[in-house]
Amino acid sequence: MIAIIQRVTEASVQVSGEDRAMGSIGRGLCVLACVVRGDGPEQAEWMAGKIARLRIFPDEAGRFDRSVVDEGGSVLLVSQFTLAADCARGNRPGFSAAAPPEEARPLLEHLRQELQDRYGIEVATGRFATDMRVALVNDGPVTISLQSPARPE
Of 65, 83, 105, 129, which has the highest C-beta tally within 10 A? Predict the structure, then answer.
């Protein structure tokens, strides 16, 4: 599983063609997430733990020492298969590393549930497999790229 995590003061996602935001948050994290082939529940659980415990919010001294849980922040979770892009050859990215939708959808839902149920984080989402518009105010800016460990063979 791959994730791009951005610390935000606000973020929202709107499905193309709809008039209002589908999901929105105030202070917290905007997480763009991609399930890759071979991922399972273990990768979703690992990613949820990292997202919840990642200390990228400042403490009173301005040091990165607080997590989204410590801050009482929210997460905007948006599916983004393009994070699995392979650009090694040519100029058109290949996406064969991304898990097919029937595998990706339940694992992204598992990630959402882990964040919500295990870590008590309010989670807003977009709509899987649709064209969306994401708006955010990156705070810092702080942007972290994470990749979960592969499943053992």
Answer: 83
